[in-house]
Design brief:
single chain, mainly alpha, 2 domains
Amino acid sequence: MFRSIRALFAQPSSNPTDASEDLCATKSALAAALPEHGQLNIPVATSNCDNLIGHSTIEHGRYLARQDRWTELSDEMRAADQDRAAVSDGMPIADLLAFGARSDVVLAAEHALSDGKAISDYDLLGGISELEGELSDNPGDPMIAAVVALAHIDLAWAWRGNATDTALPPLHRSRCAAHFDRAAAILPKCKADAPDSPLIAAAGCALLAGQRKSNARVADEYERLITLDPRNQRHMRAMGSHLLPRWFGSYAELELQALRNAVRTQDVWGAGGYTWVQFDAIALDEEACAQVDVEYFLEGLRDIVGLRPDQQMINMLSAYCAITIQNGRGLNEKADNVRAQMRDTANWLIRDHLTELHPLIWAHAANGFNNSVRINSPERFAARGQRDALRAISDLFRDELRSGKDVTFTPSGLQFSKN
């Protein structure tokens, strides 16, 4: 959940040649994506307000930390946390501020480690030592303590990297463990000082994923977090992923907790609580996809649409059903039956609810909504999402387009006309 914030740091390409190549590639791909006769017309959102808000919030948190205005940062984090303030995709404002405050330290360490160059302990430890100094100067402030704990969790993952357990160098293993242990030492007092804080509860769940203890009560920790912030679907999605056998759970427990979550959040999401818990899990795991109660999943999806019919949500659900869940087709017959029903649902979502295209959402869909993927050029990334979306949408309207009809998306619904 915390690592997904990094996508907001992607910077536009400054090379005008790249921009020109992007435009040409986009035009060429769109021409290939569209059928020969009819024309597909859909408004494209040129900017994502939430991305702008998220980026500016991160930068604000970074600015306050750089200016040593930690009291002001803490006050803003606490207010956002208490209000459960979030952008529309569920990313909490308090999380964005916290990431901004630790970003200089974390991103510098990640960059140094990814280069593979020999660097001194001071380069790696100097930044986190400064954050620890702020913790010492503000011993009763759970928001500042949470920033420091989250920085340690991020640094632990930076040392962990993508290497397998057997290939991880001893120094990396020990540093990873040390940062997780330090975060584990900080968080209990945070929880005691701010027991109703979703930010701190989410940090506790993030810590579980790093420690990988065999007796970890993951479902209990996430249940507490979801109870504190039931309107935020990100918590439910993270719980489902961590209940897969590859992490802490089993397919039976995943199903049980998804059903329990639907009951707990019935007044907020209808049956959608089941859908959110299964959402990422069945995209990651073929057997989970094969075993999901697809009828109940789709009932929950329809409840989500009824409760949150905004275009960002419609684009995400459409892209999920049309692209994300379709990855891995052919590996499991039962999972493929689920995928077929999801494709029918994409048809319903796009025909009945989509009015504009959000390219970045479709681009992330191809990566399973793994927003921690590094984006070197947002323009190219968005162009790829636009191409994927137009291919998927034009395929749904193949018959109409081949018959010579133009398909036009408008705020009031679809319009068909002969060209």
